[in-house]
């Protein structure tokens, strides 16, 4: 098994509100050579798989600046410092982005978005028996449309390229594993 690479020094290269970039100098344990790496320090994220009382999945369509496209995703976002963990953050994001709420939340697990560069994890929360509680209240940087789909449609939405966000695909893998274990 490979050993950890000892940290020689670390310097902040930029603070960009939602993440920080550090340059790290590390020593390879086998060759003793020194190398420089850039690491993105970001807060953990949460994605929510909301299932309505009727068995429909709640999705959001939104414009993404990185790809300059409208994407089909599930509600999600950063876990804020005031949130009491992924379940609380998931419920908050669900309410803000869709107007739905749920009293039956299940932690489905977490993945590392890109451990080569990033320090954070993305948690997936299942929100069962989600009900509409009012209008969505997205923040000023979000413009969302809420849409419902049958769970049986998800594989085709992924394979046809309608769902392209890797963390949403991972969330549905965790959701499918949870359903199969029941």
The count of strands amounts to: 11
Shape: elongated
CATH class of the largest domain: Alpha Beta
Number of helices: 3
According to CATH, the homologous superfamily of the largest domain is: Nucleoside Triphosphate Pyrophosphohydrolase
CATH architecture of the largest domain: Alpha-Beta Complex
Q: What pattern of helices and strands is seen along the backbone?
A: EEEEEEEHEEEEHH
The percentage helix is 10-25%
Mean pLDDT: 97
How many strands, which pairing sense, and closed or not: the largest β-sheet? 5 strands, mixed
Q: Unreliable stretches, pLDDT < 50, 5 or more residues?
A: none
Radius of gyration: 19 Å
The CATH topology of the largest domain turns out to be Nucleoside Triphosphate Pyrophosphohydrolase
The chain-level structural class is alpha+beta
Beta content comes to 35-45%
Tally of discrete structural domains: 2
Q: Compute the separation of the termini in Å.
A: 35 Å
Written description of the protein model:
With 182 residues, the chain is α+β, with helices and mostly antiparallel strands. The chain folds into two domains: 7-41, no CATH class; 45-181, Nucleoside Triphosphate Pyrophosphohydrolase, CATH 3.90.79. The chain is 20% helix and 42% strand. It has three helices and eleven strands, in the order E-E-E-E-E-E-E-H-E-E-E-E-H-H. The two termini are 35 Å apart. 24% of the residues are buried.
Quick take:
It contains 3 helices and 11 strands. By secondary structure, it is α+β, with helices and mostly antiparallel strands.
Question: Keyphrases for this structure?
Answer:
182 residues, alpha+beta, Nucleoside Triphosphate Pyrophosphohydrolase, five-stranded mixed sheet, three-stranded antiparallel sheet, 3 helices, 42% strand, elongated
């Amino acid at each position: 098994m490979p050993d950890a690479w000892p940290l020689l020094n670390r310097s902040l290269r930029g603070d960009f509100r939602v993440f920080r970039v550090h340059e790290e100098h590390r020593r390879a344990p086998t060759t003793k050579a020194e190398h420089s790496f850039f690491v993105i320090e970001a807060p953990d994220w949460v994605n929510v798989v909301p299932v309505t009382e009727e068995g429909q999945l709640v999705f959001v369509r939104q414009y993404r600046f990185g790809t300059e496209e409208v994407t089909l995703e599930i509600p999600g976002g950063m876990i804020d410092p005031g949130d009491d963990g992924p379940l609380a953050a998931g419920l908050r994001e669900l309410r803000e982005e869709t107007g739905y709420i749920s009293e039956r939340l299940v932690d489905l697990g977490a993945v590392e978005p890109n451990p080569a560069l990033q320090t954070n994890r993305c948690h997936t929360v299942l929100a069962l028996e989600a009900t509409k509680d009012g209008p969505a209240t997205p923040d000023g940087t979000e413009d969302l449309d809420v849409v419902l789909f049958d769970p049986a449609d998800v594989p085709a939405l992924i394979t046809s390229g309608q769902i392209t966000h890797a963390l949403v695909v991972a969330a549905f893998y965790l959701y499918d594993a949870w359903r199969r274990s029941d």
